[in-house]
Amino acid sequence: MTVQQLFNSMTFDDVITALRNTQRNDRSIQNVAGYKEAFDVLCNLKPEGDGGEVIFDVTPREEWFTPHFLPLVVNYVEGDY
């Protein structure tokens, strides 16, 4: 599955609900227009990668509320599967 296929399998409401939970301490989540624009771009990109893997780094649940920690970080997304 490509990242684009993943994003096309959900709605923007699904994404923004998750972001409001994981980024609740970040002021940028108050204005979702930029997130909507990025979501639309990701849904319409044509994959051009060489079939590499996307790696998800998951932070242990007990550290989710520690400043500067994100519950989930995605690596190797640009231009790749």
Commentary on this structure:
The protein has 81 residues and is α+β, with helices and mostly antiparallel strands. Helices cover 36% and strands 10% of the residues. Strands 1-2 form a two-stranded antiparallel sheet. The radius of gyration is 14 Å and the shape is globular. The mean pLDDT is 79.
Strand order of the largest sheet: 1-2
Percentage of β-strand residues:
5-15%
Largest sheet: 2 strands, antiparallel
The poorly predicted ranges are: none
Helix/strand order, N-terminal first: HHHEE
What structural class should be given to the helix and strand makeup?
A: alpha+beta
Overall average pLDDT: 79
Number of helical segments with 4 or more residues: 3
Q: What overall form do the CA principal axes indicate?
A: globular
Q: State the separation between the terminal residues, measured CA to CA.
A: 7 Å
Number of strands: 2
Helicity range: 25-40%
Provide a brief overview of the structure:
This protein is α+β, with helices and mostly antiparallel strands and 81 residues long. Helices cover 36% and strands 10% of the residues.
Labels describing this entry:
single chain, 81 residues, 3 helices, two-stranded antiparallel sheet, 10% strand, alpha+beta
